[in-house]
Amino acid sequence: MAILESGRIYPPGLGIDCIHVEARDARAALWAMEEGVRCSALSAVIGELWGDPAALGFTATRRLAVASERSGVPCWLARLGGTANLSGARMRWRVASAPSLLTSLDPRAPGLPAWDAELFRARGVPPGRWSIAHEAGVFDLVSGASDRALGEGERLRA
């Protein structure tokens, strides 16, 4: 359902080498993610699930978090159409699209893509909210939705 709702990834658009695994159900997707996280040759694992599958419980998310910490391979699980529930994730975010930023070339044209990101639960990190824009492989934290101070010119590489 996640692929029907949001489409497939387009690897050349990411600008990086990647392995795309399509699983038949949530249980198989979580197994593939856990196996990927245990492989230290990978630079990251990103999974996408739809709704609230029975296989996605506290134990499954805790296993992913522990395996990620042991191997040092970052792991992100994006849930589409799900409700907030118990999770073993170290950080929990809500991310939504935001209006694109204005462009200086034509104010009527869409500008840089932007998102509203809210960190609502994390261990040892206070919650916060940011607006994020993407340009040429760099994610910029931009003013607008911030509810706490950020470093000047803070940037995240894609």
Low-confidence stretches: 149-153
Main beta sheet: 5 strands, antiparallel
Mean pLDDT: 81
Tally the structural domains: 2
* Computed CA radius of gyration, to the nearest angstrom: 17 Å
Distance between the termini: 26 Å
Taken from the alpha-carbon principal axes, the silhouette is globular
Count all strands and give the number: 7
Category from helices, strands and their pairing? alpha+beta
- SSE sequence, one letter per element: HHHEHEEEEEE
Number of helices: 4
| Strand content bin | 25-35%
Please state how the strands of the largest beta sheet are arranged side by side. Answer: 3-4-5-6-7
Please explain how this structure is put together.
The chain has about 160 residues and is of the alpha+beta class. It folds into two domains: about 1-90; about 90-158, no CATH class. Helix content is about 20%, strand content about 30%. It contains four helices and seven strands, in the order H-H-H-E-H-E-E-E-E-E-E. The protein has helices at about 1-5, 10-15, 25-35, 60-70; strands at about 45-50, 75-80, 90-100, 115-120, 130-135, 140, 155. The strands form two sheets. It has a five-stranded antiparallel β-sheet, with no helix packed on it. A two-stranded parallel ribbon has the order 1-2. Helix 3 (about 25-35) runs parallel beside helix 4 (about 60-70). It is globular.
Give a nutshell description of this structure.
The chain is an alpha+beta fold and 158 residues long. The chain is built from four helices and seven strands; from the N terminus they run αααβαββββββ.
